[in-house]
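Support request, please re-run this one:
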Amino acid sequence: MATTFTRMDASTREQWLTIGVEHVKNQGRVADRILWLLESLAELVDGFATDQLTHCLQTATRAERAGADKEFVVASLCHDIGKAISVPNHPAIAAAMLQPYVRDEVYQVILTHQDFQGRHYYAYFDKDPDAREQYRDEPWFALGERFADEWDQNSFDPDYDTLPLEHFEPLVREVFAQPHTF
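Re-run finished. Output below.
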């Protein structure tokens, strides 16, 4: 059922309750859209040895095999999902998409992961390879290092035993089923 207002300042409480019910009914489409965006990464190689979907799958596979919890496994899977839209600001896009569904430390790691990765290549672009140090005093710094150094930077291997997207789909659906915040 659709509401009839054409301006928010002319809406009623009852109309917003209707909209709220519709949002809850349609929450499942969030996971569908996330999976769709992930699948679209298979088209992006951008000079790497694997496409970006394979890279994300390898990162999530490594996180899962290392014992990461479900929020962090899903965040590892989605950390480069923003590349489907814009490579330069992909960390902010991915982090914003994850933020309502994961705890703050997971959000912060995804938001800043490019600066943590910079250790491995920023110098080639005349940028500070120690950019991660600006976050040294953050409580999630060690998790950011672990993500970047153990799971992300080494996940461009065409021969790695990578778990398929279907393996992660139930976790994606679980994590994106209900936002922590509105």
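The helical segments are 13-25, 28-40, 52-65, 70-78, 90-98, 104-117, 141-152, 165-175. The chain has a mean pLDDT of 94.
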